[in-house]
Each structure stands twice: as C-alpha cells, then as structure tokens.
Amino acid sequence: MNIRVIGIAVLAAVLALVPSVASEYWVGLLTQILIFGLLALSADLLLGHAGLFSLCHAAFFAVSAYTVAILQTRYGVTTIPAALAGLGAGTLLAAIFASAVRTRGVYFILITLAFGYIVWGVAHRWASFTGGDNGVTNVPPLTLAGVQIATKAHYYYFVLIVLALALALYRILTTSPFGLALRGIKSSETRMRSLGYRVGAHLYVAFVISGFYASLAGVLYIYFNRFVNPVAAGFPYSVEAILMAIIGGTGTILGPFIGSGIILILRNWVSGFFHYYTAVLGLIFIATVLWAPNGVMGLIKSLRSGNRGEGA
Amino acid sequence: MTAIVLQAINGLSLAALLFLLASGFTVTFGLMRVVNMAYGVYYLLGGYIGLTVMRATGSFELAMLVGGCAIVVLGFFVDRFLIRPIGSNHLAQVLLTVGVAFFVGEVCLAIWGGDSLKIQLPSYLRGSVELPGGIYYPKLRLALIGFGVFAALSLWLLYHKTQIGAVVRAGVDDREMVTAMGINIDLLFVLVSALASFLAGVAGVVGGAFLTLNPGAEWDILVLALVVVIVGGLGSLEGAVLGSIVVGLLDAYGRWLAPDFSYFVLFGPMAILLLFRPTGIFGKEH
Amino acid sequence: MLNLRALMFGGAVLALSVAVGVSPAEVQEKKPIKIGLLAPLTGPLASPGTEMVNGFRQYWNSVNNMAGGRKIEIVVADTTCNPDQALTQARRLALQEKVDLLVGPLCGHEGPAVAQVSAETGVPLVMDPAGADDVTKWKRTPTVIRTAVSSSQIGHPLGEYLYKDLGLRNVTFIGADYTFGHEVTLGAVKTFTDLGGKVDRIIWNPVGTKDYSTTVNSIPAGTGAVVPIVVGADRIRLFEDWFNYGMDKKHKIVASYWLHEDVLPQLDDRAVGIIGNVLHYVAGIDTPENKAFVEEHIKLYKRVPSWFAESAYTAGLWVKTALDKINGNVEDRDAFLKAMRTVEVKAPRGPVKLDAYDNPIQNVYVSKVEKVNHPVLGNILMNKPIKTYEAVSQFWTWKPEEFLARGPYKR
User: What does the radius of gyration of chain C's CA atoms come to, in whole angstroms?
Assistant: First the structure.
C-alpha cells in the first residue's frame, strides 16, 4: 500500500480519537489550530503555489465571521443561510481585492496590507453596525437540521469533516492543470506568458479561491469562538497566517496546520507558564529560516530522503 | 490661513521623523534587495538606549550618538550572521526579521517595562517659540524639521555627489556591473547598512522625545515607514523624501479636515495609488 | 527525639488551627481555591496589566493568601489586550486549570468576550477593570459581576461638575475613538447638555494617535474648556503638545481621563494644578484604608499605584469578604455570587457595594495634580481629590429602566 494513504489513514484515526482521550480544553485548542491552519492554508494557496505574499487574508476571514455573527444575532437567520452568506461576503470581498494581482513582489505585499487596514478600520469605526470594539458576542452554536452542535467535541468532529472535504478539493485544485499553471507562474511568469497562458486571469481566480478558503475558516471560527471583534480583521492575524504557512512549509497541505499548531500552542499554552513566549516565537522564526528554510515539512522531507540515501 | 500653515508644519515634523526611518529602509532595499522588518525594533531599541543614556548623562546629543551606534552594532550582526546566509529570498527575509523584531521587542519589554516613556529634552529644545500672530510653535518640531532637511540633504549629496554615492546608485541599478568593476560590494553593503541602522537608532531617540516609547511602538512606526517607502517608490531616496512629506501632510490635514475618516486617511489613498501606479511615485520595477 | 519533634510540630499546628478557628481535619480536607487572573502582560498595555497583577498579589499576600479557611492560589494568564486571546485564555483557565473564579480582564473590549466564557462554563467572573457599559446594562450575564467601574459612570458626574461647579456653558471634548472613550465622553456630554450646556466640538482620535498637534490646533476659539479622555501613550503626547502649542495660555483644560499615576513620573511641573481626572480612584484619597494601601504598594513596587492596581486590590478584598462569608464554599457558585452581590466593602477608593445590576455604587473624585514630597520616592506628582461625588450609581440620577430604554452611548 501507498505510504501516503497509510499516513492519511493513521492521521485521521488519531484525530478522530482525540476527544475520547484529551480534555475539553485540548479539544478546543486543537479545533482552533485546525481553523487557523485552514486560514494559513488559504493564504498559502497564493504564497506556496502562486508566489504571492498576501497580508489581507484576515479581512476575508473577519468579513465572513462578521456576516454570520450579525445575521444570526441581529436578524435571527439560521445557520445554513447565514454560513452561506458569510462565505459569499468574504469571497465577494476577495473578488474586489483580487485587483491587487496587478502588482507583484513587495508591492503586492503592501497593497494587500493597505486593503487589510481598510477592512479593519471599517470594522472598528462603523460601530453601529459591527459593534465597534466590543464586537458581536453570544453567537448561537451551530445548528444543522434542528440539531444543535454545542459541545466542544461535537464541534471538533464537525470541523474535521468540513476540513476533510475542503482539503480534498484543495488537493484536486492544486494538482489540476490550473494548479500546475499557478506553479508555472510562480517559477517563471514570462515563460508562462510566452506559452500563451493568461497569467493575470489565473492569479485573479487563485486569489478569489484563496479568499473563499479564508472565508470558510471565518465561518468555522465564528461558530467556535461565538464572538468576533475587529482584531480578527487586523494586520497581526494576516501576518500570523502567512508565518504559520512558512514555519510549517509552504506549498504543502499539512504545513500550514503544523505552523498553526506551533504558534497557537506557544501562545495559548506556553504563555501560561513562560512569560516571554513571544521571544521564543521570534527565535523559532529565526531558526526556521536558518535551519529549516522549507519549514517543518521541508525538514521532514529532507530527513526522509536522507535516510533513504543511507539505506540505498 | 494660519491654521493651514500650522497643520502643514505639523505634518512636516512627522514627515521628518518618518524620513529618518524610511530612508534607511529604502536604500538598503534598493541596494541589497533586503526587506528588513526589524527596522521598527531598531527604532525602539535605539530610543530606549538613548533614554538610558539621557537619564545617566543628561546629554541629548550623546543619547542620539549612542542610540545610533548601538543599532549599528545590532544591525551589523543581524546583517552578517542572519540575513547574509539566507540570500535574496524575500520570504525568508521577512520571516527572519519579524523573528528578530519579536525577540528584541520582548527583550525591551523585559528591560524597560511596559510604561510609556518619554526622553527628556535638553533645555534648548524645550518649550516653544512665539511666531508672529501669537502662534506658539514647539521648538522640538522646528528642530526636527531642520534635522530632517539636514539628513535628507546630506544623504542626497552623499548619494549624488560622491564617489561612494555613485557606486551605490550603480549598485541599485545593476549589482553585477559593480562587482565586475572590481568594487568591493561587501564593504559597500556594510557601510550603507551601518548608515541606515544609525539613522533608525537616531530616529528612535528623536521619536522617544517626540512620540514616547512603549511596547508595540515598533510596529506602529514600521507600518508608517512602509507606507512612506511604498508611496515614494522602493529604493528611491527622492521617493522617501516625497513619501514622508505626503504621509505627514495626509495625516495632519486628513485628521484636521476629515476626522471621521482618520482610520482611512493613509491606507485609502495608498491602496488607490498602488492600483494605478504599482511601483509608487519614484519607484522602478524590482 | 524524632517523636518529640513531631509532637511539638503537631502541637504548633493544633495551636495555629485553634487560633484561626478550624480543626486540623478541616485544614487537610479543603483544597485551595483557584483564582484565574486575566491581564495583559505583553503588548501596549503591559504596564497597567502588570499593575493589576501587582495590586491583586499585594492584597492576597496581606491576608496570607487565605479566605474562608482555604488557601488561595492565583493563576495569571496573559491576554495581550486582544479579545480573541482573552477568550482563549479564559477558556484555558476555566477548563484546563479548573479555576473556581475568574478575575479580569483589563481592556474594555475583552470584557464581553470573557463574559461569554463565564456564561458558557458557569465559572463566576469578577470583571475588573474592563469598563464596557453593556456588561452591567444591556448584556448582563448571571455569573458576571463587576467590581471596578462602568465607563459612563465616571462621565456623568463630570458633565455636572463642568456645568455647576465650574460654571462652563460651552466645552470641547477630545475623545478616544473606541468604545470606552465613546461611553465616558458621551456620558459627560449627556449630563452636561441636559443641564443646558453646549458642546462646541468633539474631536475623536484613534487610540495610538502619534501626533496631537492637529488635535490641539483644531480646538475652536472661544471654547470654555477642553475636556480630554485619552489613554495609553497618547496621554503624554497630548500633554506635550498642549503646552508646546501654548494652549495653556489660550484654553482651560479639565480632564475626564488623562493624568493617571502611571504617567505622572513622565511629566513635569507644568502638570501641577491641572484637574487631571474625574475618576472613582486616585492615589491621593485621604483615608486610612487608602494610605495603608498606597504606602504598602510603594514599598513593594517603588511606584504610586494607579486605579488599575487599586481596582485589582479591591477585587481581591471583595472576593475575600464574600468567601469568608460563605466559609470558603466557592463550589456553591450561587452562594458565592450572592455573597459578592450583598457584601459591602471598605476599599481604598471608599465604600463600595453592588447595585441590582451588578455594578458598584461608589464615589467619583474630581482630582487635581499636586506636588508632594514622599519619603521613599522624593518629589513626585500626586492626584488629590478636590471634590467627591458620593455613592454614584452607573445610572447616575436616572431610573435604571429609563436609562436602559435609552440605549447605549454610541458615537
């Protein structure tokens, strides 16, 4: 049997067993890791596959979370239409912000930074609609077909299922001709252009799809947190999403989740007993760049091929 | 009318501070293609060191000198032992320098604590001068504008009228050519980077007197400096001058005339500008 | 020999238990009470966050970390002044650390997030010092009580003070543009305009505004007084620009929320004589309770406590009083909350007790900056009360129903 299939099966089994062995807190933290991992993965669709470094993915994430939260708490809309509206709103915003693909490199980074700041400003400033700093609280738990998914463990399973579908699609997408074209653009835009590819259109579509994934993370986030405030749209979240992807390994599916795990465990668990955890995070970034330039996944890969080399 | 002029001077004083930080960032990017996100923390650490020197000696000039030199040392180590080994990968540079910023930021918090600290000014910079028409204007700000103009002029002369400047400009345009000409580009990098670090450290000391120092200030100022650099065009000294002035004036007039939009005053115009002129006002494609 | 020592030890324990009125069996039975303290220890608000932890520890150390016959254990979590982080940390404390109650958070916008965790888990939350009005007005949670202050509670007396005591008829506000700033500012605007006063202008500034020159130069000529509500590093920037632009020669300044004890060391004699705050606590309150608290705090931490330290100290005192009343039986959450709601506490800030909406009824002090000579700290600036509004309710003089029907203060 293929080692990849075995790996996935083992991973799935382990993940499925977590709630029966771990405490509610760890199940919650793991759910959070998965959700932010999905956000990181969404940003990595642009970074790892198309070579674009976006700093506005928190915007789609937050707009979708806000849409769900406001529809549910203020207008009594039920889960499914609210979630669809959230996905729609985030993706629509991505379709607008995707105009940033006119630029490249550092300019792309900074234009997306500016976009992100604008959304944060609106969330903050338009208090009568967004609740300002206080945000929107007490969003009802996810309810599907009249069944409320209220416990941490149940929600965790829900996230796993959604994630499994989303990741399968992601895999199909990135291995499709479209995904290969993106990688082609990443390695040489001029070559792809001369081969007749419509580079701009490819990047535009990739941007919108990646915005859709960020919005999906936003929907999962709001039903987990049941609370959203302008921080979710802020610059630090966008940066963090990208850093998660880089630490874990860009251009891979597992990498962003590993990065999300490292950062969130540091911040949420280590911070409980070590005050200067941000410094540790800084050192991890530095160490990653110096000794694991392709992230944790790259490290694993090189170790594996190294071992194989010895055996041969 | 007086209000318009007054707000203009206000904007220019912020512009002068931003220029000190942005000029180093932009020139090092232009020459070495390095995106260094640690400039914000260079500013903060330089400021804190200056604060300690100021408290110990009471000399503001010494504070600026020591603050600047300390950052030259830090900048040298970061360049040589961290940035140099990873080559020209922007992604790695961003991650690495954000890591440096996190680490140094926490060290600053551990040493200087979380209070907002202000560097006391020497007596000749304290208070204000009375301009005609009964307007009071702070001496510090006038001095800051003067200092900014002085720094910009010196850099311009260095850049355009000296041998080193010519080599640096050639390096910005075509690195290989400079190397081929047998010029020691390594030494050049070290010099330019030292100058940029020095300016960032000095900016911190000046900023500490002007805006106060506190945890998180490194990111606030870095984001503004990035806006300056982008609006002006990456790698261009003139761009940094123009960018600083645009950002300073936008901030002052924007908050004066349209206070309701103060959250968007900078980023709104920047996003629009970049959509239509992606390389900034003076920038070239990199 | 060994036996003798054991005997002596046993005797000492016995004597000690008799002294505090519990039997040895009880001492062994009762496990410690765990309190989760949520405060920002890193980021821009690290300084008030640290004060909060210091004030809380100061109180508990002063009573040997005991309440209701049980040991008190404090678990501190860093919220970084980010509601998301506050929520996650509150969940960690509640679910993983299994704390018996939560105290915190600091930042106004973290308040609703942590209140939600209290609602989810049933762990009582003693909200301190986050000020969000909502928490004790429109969005109350049965398990949440507040021991610090509601934002607009300090705004209301100010409006009256401006109109009646200072005789002002038209003023300009400089408001911090976020929820806390809106609530304090608009609370003052409400009472001031209800009396007949006129607001010339409200200049809103985002928190973290670099440059106050634009703001001070936007003050309308001929305005009666300028009333700032500013936070964080902005406080020093406003101070500098106020004097540097000669505003002190043109305008009167009466602050609502500005010159707190933590920034006073960064200022100079120009601050002397300014009404720097209208607040429920300043360090210069002249009562034995407060003097003892302030001197002890200075001895321990070499700095004058601001309201953040006092607030956490009082939260500790309040919890201790309630726990003593229910003999430490914190597991009975209803009994604990009921005790918190009914006890009256003599805090450094003055007498405090909760109203029917779980917000303290307390004094509000108008204070002036004075120069004093302190035996340990030397010449320092100090906030001294010049007028006291006694037993101020969060609803001021309105009926609660009337206030609630009017809705929150929103910009």
Answer: 22
Domain boundaries, chain C: 20-149+287-359, 152-279+364-393
Max mean pLDDT range (B104-108, B213-217, C130-134): B104-108
User: Which sequence spans correspond to the domains of chain B?
Assistant: 2-276
Report d(CA A212, CA A209) in Å as an integer.
5
d(CA A215, CA A210): 9
Lowest mean pLDDT among A78-92, A231-245, B44-58, C332-346: A231-245
Q: State the chains in contact with A (3 or more Cβ–Cβ pairs under 8 Å).
A: B, C
Kindly report whether the peptide bond that precedes residue C129 is cis, defined as omega within 30 degrees of 0.
Answer: yes
* C273 SS3 class: coil
| Rounded-to-integer distance, Cα C208 and Cα C221, Å | 26
Query: How does pLDDT run across A207-252, given as a tens digit for each residue?
Result: 999 999 999 999 999 999 999 999 899 888 998 999 999 999 999 9
User: What is the third-level CATH fold of C152-279+364-393?
Assistant: Rossmann fold (3.40.50)
Measured between alpha carbons, how far is A39 from C367 in angstroms, rounded to an integer? 49
User: Averaged over B44-57, what is the pLDDT?
Assistant: 96
The tokens of B248 are what? 């300073």
Q: Which chains touch C (3 or more CB pairs under 8 A)?
A: A, B
Quote the minimal CA–CA distance from A2 to chain B in Å: 33
C112 contacts A135? CB cut-off 8 A: yes
Domain C20-149+287-359 in this protein, CATH class: alpha beta
Flag if C49 and B114 touch (Cβ within 8 Å).
yes
CB contact under 8 A, A279 and B271: no
Closest residue in A to B263 (Cα–Cα): A121
Whether pLDDT at A109 is above 50: yes
pLDDT tens per residue, range C272-300: 999 999 999 999 999 999 999 999 999 99
Q: pLDDT of C85-140, one tens digit each?
A: 899 999 999 998 999 999 999 988 899 899 999 998 999 999 999 988 989 999 89
Q: What is the predicted pLDDT for the residue at B251? A: 86
Q: Which helix (H) or strand (E) holds B108?
A: helix B90-112
For residue range B70-83, list pLDDT tens digits in order: 999 999 999 999 99
Lowest pLDDT segment from A39-48, A172-181, B26-35, C131-140: B26-35
Which has the higher per-residue pLDDT, B33 or C289? C289
Alpha carbon separation from A82 to A36, A119, A132, A217, C217 (Å, rounded): 21, 20, 21, 14, 47
Taking alpha carbons only, the member of C143, C186, C106, C114 closest to residue C408 is C186
Burial profile C349-368: b = 16 or more Cβ within 10 angstroms, e = fewer:
bbbbebeebbbbbbbbbbbb
Query: With an 8 Å Cβ cutoff, are C249 and B136 in contact?
Result: yes
**Which among B89, B106, B110 is the nearest to A282, CB-wise?**
B106
Could you tell me the two tokens for A167?
A: 């990741």
Task: Report helix, strand and coil shares of chain B as percent, to nearest 5.
Answer: 75, 5, 20
The rounded distance, in Å, linking the Cα atoms of B185 and B180 is 10
Cα-based distances in Å from C49 to B77, B226, C131: 34, 30, 14
* CATH classification code of B2-276: 1.10.3470
User: pLDDT digits over C158-185, tens only?
Assistant: 999 999 999 999 999 999 988 899 999 9
- Exposed, middle or buried: residue A18 (CB in 10 Å: 0-12, 13-18, 19+)? middle
Decide whether C20-149+287-359 matches C152-279+364-393 in CATH topology.
yes
Q: Which residue of A has its CA nearest to B111?
A: A276
Establish if A102 touches chain B: CB-CB under 8 angstroms. yes
| Ramachandran assignment for A243, one of left (phi > 0), alpha (psi -120 to 50 degrees), beta (any other) | alpha
Q: Does C411 touch chain B (CB under 8 A)?
A: no
CA distance B16 to chain A (A): 22
Query: Which residue of C lies nearest to B128 if distances are taken between CA atoms?
Result: C244
